[in-house]
Amino acid sequence: MINSDIIQRIGIARAITGILGLLAYCRFPAWLMKRVVRRYIRAYNINMDEFEYDPARFTSFNTFFTRHFKPGMRIFAEGVASPAEGLITAAGSFSEGQLFHVKGSYYPVSALLNQEVQFAEGSFATIYLSPADYHRVHAPFDCTVNRIDYRRGKLKTVKPGQVGKEPLLYCENDRVIIEGVSEYGRFYMVLVGAVVVGRIRLAFIDGVRKGCFFDNLQTDLVKGEEAGLFELGSTVILLFENDTLAKAELLEGKHVLLGESLVQSNRELKSG
Fold first, then answer.
1. Could you give the CA distance from residue 239 to residue 242 in angstroms, rounded to a whole number?
2. Alpha-carbon Rg for the chain in angstroms
3. pTM metric for this prediction
4. 231, pLDDT greater than 80
């Protein structure tokens, strides 16, 4: 498998990402794709029983990587549900306009959202999507999207072990900033790109690409509806201007399922 840390260290992340992105879209002979997919599944111990799995349909690596769950495989809990499936690396309340990384480092909310914000306190949850995880993002609640900002930035690895070493990493990488309102108040959902992440795509609006900015939108999303996807990578940060996710700190270090409650885990919280 591709070692993203090596790619980053030798400073060719964007070039390699571009090449891998093109390769991910290429159509290869069925026999070759089956071998690649099977090796990937074994390497990351992916439970394919949960997914719609027909090797004949995987005409490119990207069609496999962005695979869908089988219908009914994930149920969205009441309240604020997880928009993605992955590891909660940091969560809870924040103050003085500073979000925290793993290992106690901090970064400014205004830099992450690429705008001067009028609030200094709030709550959030950061979800890291490993190569083994489902890579589609869904609406965590009924909401109306008002603003989209697709920032072109760097392409650095967002593995938990690296994040704490670079406090501004999430603020510097490619990212899509989705802003809107819901019954829980104003929210922001940030989809962060990373090394070997080809693209971030949104499902509810056309024409979104790096450098795009959409303001004064009134686009409604229903809870559980697909909002976007990563074509390789990465991290989702859900943020509120209030204490909605204050208790999400109990989930730090846990792997959450798509649709699982972020306010209170639906499963027994166990360490390790």
1. 9
2. 18
3. 0.85
4. no
Q: Yes or no: say if 120 and 154 are a contact pair by the CB < 8 Å rule.
A: no
Q: What is the Cα–Cα distance from 202 to 214, expressed in whole angstroms?
A: 13
CA distance 173 to 58: 29
Which residues are 235's β-sheet partners? 128, 192
Nearest residue to 8 via CA among 128, 153, 156 = 156
**E strand residue ranges, the chain:** 86-94, 98-100, 106-108, 122-128, 136-138, 143-151, 175-182, 185-192, 200-202, 213-214, 219-221, 226-230, 235-240, 255-256
Q: At 162, phi and psi to the nearest 5?
A: -95, -30
Amino acid letter for position 207: G
- Give the position of tokens 């997880």: 82
Separation CA 92–CA 126 (nearest Å): 9
For residues 175 and 200, give the distance between their C-alpha atoms in angstroms, rounded to a whole number: 8
**Token pair of 253, please?**
């270090």
Question: Two tokens at 14?
Answer: 């964007």
% of the chain surpassing 90 pLDDT: 55
Closest CA to 244 of 110, 141, 113, 117: 141
